Q: What sequence folds into this?
């Protein structure tokens, strides 16, 4: 899918590292949202940034984009100095647009800010399949349409690095499949994608490598192949947080516990369903067996170098295609 | 920065609320500046403010003062809302992150916004002058009064002063929105200050207490009122009066403008965008 260099080589040569953080830390009073994070995303790869609610994903991405000032540590995107977002496109959390403007005019306004020509607006609307409704006011858009417009905005600059924070939030199964297919297409082209998610199945479907963040720390980093093979990703989550969470999630939680009364988030997108359930089961077992490190109200994701005894992870649908549209 | 300015202009122009505010401003300005005095001339004004000013006060030669009269208080309040809307909306809709991830630095976005707002403030003031000119001309024709326009110098000075006062209120609205990171509270507090607190200080407390009288000399509204008065605005209009010399008033208003913009820029560049 991508021709990313093997591990350890991404600093070599003239290739700039798309995303590099050194000891990145953010503290909000008592809360250590991000804790000495060292992240390295390689050119051309789709990197999954996986973690439960409150793990520090969004805070990290905000720091990458200069929206939030790190307490300490450094950030470099595409080898440029902090704050320079040339060639970077991003969608952070829920999309934010002007409700009184149409989808197209929202993008036109952003294109002005970005110094991008008007034809590009038409292109990205086409890419996210929003052309038909692009003349309607943003306020009248459905959740999924808003999310797609957010992705369109992220694509405006024809970015070399795309930072997406839970881009499938609010999308129906078909929309999710569409979005994942789009991310894979972008990853297969020149674009490097940093994708945050709390859906293990999603990350496994679209990503080349996965970094797992918990309590602000990078607790594991693996290729998806490794995750599928020898290493079992074990998720341990504190039940209170699961109950408190209103979002659909899979990190050790019951599938479909999103409380939205609709199909579970990955419904219809292939093989991740069973895997997630198994991951959840393992998680609950792991929690009983190994509660160390949990604390009230905090989700914890850990990886254990446990050989996959039953080989059940190997039977997964082929990477990159199972959710295709 | 030009791109950001155009982007902000598009947003200002396409936002229905701004047109609504302009309409209200024109209606208020004509009502208090011309129609009520006109009713007074015809003997139908009763006790309404400005109803005893006489025909001479609403003829074309008084255009500058009449156009500036509202700016210290009620037109100022509308301009403050315009400024707060332009900045505060970004917080409410979560659009700061959308705009800032497109590239431009925060200060460039703010500069673009302020340029666009400055353009709008000029249009606003020109509209007050334009509608005032039309109305006073119509009144002069109807009443068979002479149509004598102010000199170009007076007009230019009036426009300049009006623009300066307008900019100050717009930037106060913008600053409040940045400080409070929202829309409702900045507008509420700004209006309470402008329409209630400042008015009480200027017209009630100052004549009674020496130190309040001193403090009044430094208030943005009082200086805006002095500047308007020095260019012919009627002292019977709320907020207008010779509280300070025109030179001092101009400097203080310009000083507030710079302070509001500087403080807003400093806060915006320092704080996290959530
Ligand atoms: N502005 C803030 N002030 C105080 N605490 C904050 C702030 N922003 C984030 N946090 C805290 O930092 C931690 C990480 O939050 P963050 O939003 O980065 O998590 P996340 O991994 O994106 O979670 P989710 O999957 O729910 O989006 C949380 O404990 C959160 O409460
Ligand atoms: Mg988040």
A:
């Amino acid at each position: 899918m991508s021709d990313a260099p093997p591990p350890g080589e991404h600093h070599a040569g003239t290739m700039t590292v798309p995303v590099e953080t050194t000891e990145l830390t953010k503290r909000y009073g008592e809360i250590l949202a991000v804790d000495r994070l060292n992240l390295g995303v390689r050119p051309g790869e789709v990197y999954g940034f996986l973690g439960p609610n409150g793990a520090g994903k969004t805070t990290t991405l905000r720091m990458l984009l200069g929206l939030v000032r790190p307490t300490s540590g450094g950030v470099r995107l595409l080898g440029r100095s902090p704050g320079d977002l040339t060639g970077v496109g991003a969608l952070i959390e829920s999309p934010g647009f002007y409700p009184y403007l149409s989808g197209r005019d929202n993008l036109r306004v952003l294109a002005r800010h970005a110094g991008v020509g008007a034809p590009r607006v038409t292109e990205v609307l086409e890419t996210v399949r929003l052309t038909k409704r692009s003349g309607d006011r943003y306020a009248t858009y459905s959740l999924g349409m808003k999310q797609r417009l957010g992705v369109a905005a992220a694509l405006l600059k024809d970015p070399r690095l795309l930072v997406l924070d839970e881009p499938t939030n609010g999308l129906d199964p078909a929309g999710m499949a569409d979005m994942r297919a789009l991310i894979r297409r972008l990853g297969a082209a020149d674009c490097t994608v940093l994708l945050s998610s709390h859906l293990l199945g999603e990350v496994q479907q679209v990503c080349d490598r996965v970094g797992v963040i918990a309590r602000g720390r990078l607790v594991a980093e693996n290729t998806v192949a490794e995750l599928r093979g020898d290493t079992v990703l074990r998720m341990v989550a504190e039940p209170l947080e699961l109950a408190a969470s209103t979002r659909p999630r899979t990190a050790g939680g019951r599938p479909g516990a999103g409380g939205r009364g609709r199909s579970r988030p990955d419904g219809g997108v292939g093989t991740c369903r069973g895997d997630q359930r198994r991951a959840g089961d393992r998680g609950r077992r792991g929690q009983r067996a190994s509660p160390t490190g949990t604390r009230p109200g905090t989700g914890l994701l850990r990886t254990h170098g446990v050989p996959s005894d039953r080989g059940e992870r190997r039977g997964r649908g082929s990477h990159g295609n199972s959710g295709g549209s | 920065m030009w791109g950001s300015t155009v982007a902000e202009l598009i947003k200002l122009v396409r936002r229905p609320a701004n047109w609504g505010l302009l309409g209200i401003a024109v209606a208020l300005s004509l009502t208090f500046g011309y129609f009520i005095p006109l009713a007074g001339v015809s003997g139908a004004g009763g006790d309404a403010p400005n109803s005893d000013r006489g025909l001479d006060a609403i003829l074309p030669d008084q255009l500058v003062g009449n156009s500036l009269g509202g700016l210290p208080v009620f037109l100022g309040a509308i301009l403050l809302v315009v400024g707060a809307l332009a900045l505060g909306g970004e917080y409410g809709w979560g659009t700061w992150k959308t705009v800032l991830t497109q590239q431009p630095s925060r200060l460039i976005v703010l500069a673009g916004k302020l340029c666009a707002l400055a353009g709008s403030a000029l249009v606003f003031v020109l509209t007050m002058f334009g509608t005032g000119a039309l109305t006073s001309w119509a009144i002069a024709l109807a009443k068979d009064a002479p149509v004598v326009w102010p000199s170009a110098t007076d007009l230019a000075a009036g426009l300049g002063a009006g623009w300066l006062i307008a900019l100050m209120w717009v930037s106060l609205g913008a600053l409040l929105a940045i400080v409070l990171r929202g829309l409702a509270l900045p507008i509420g507090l700004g209006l309470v200050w402008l329409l209630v607190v400042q008015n009480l200080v200027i017209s009630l407390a100052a004549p009674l207490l020496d130190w309040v009288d001193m403090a009044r000399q430094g208030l943005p509204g009082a200086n805006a009122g002095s500047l308007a008065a020095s260019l012919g605005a009627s002292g019977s209009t709320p907020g207008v009066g010779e509280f300070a010399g025109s030179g001092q008033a101009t400097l203080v208003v310009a000083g507030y403008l710079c302070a509001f913009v500087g403080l807003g820029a400093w806060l915006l560049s320092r704080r996290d965008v959530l």
About this structure: The CA atoms of residues 227 and 233 of chain A lie 7 Å apart.
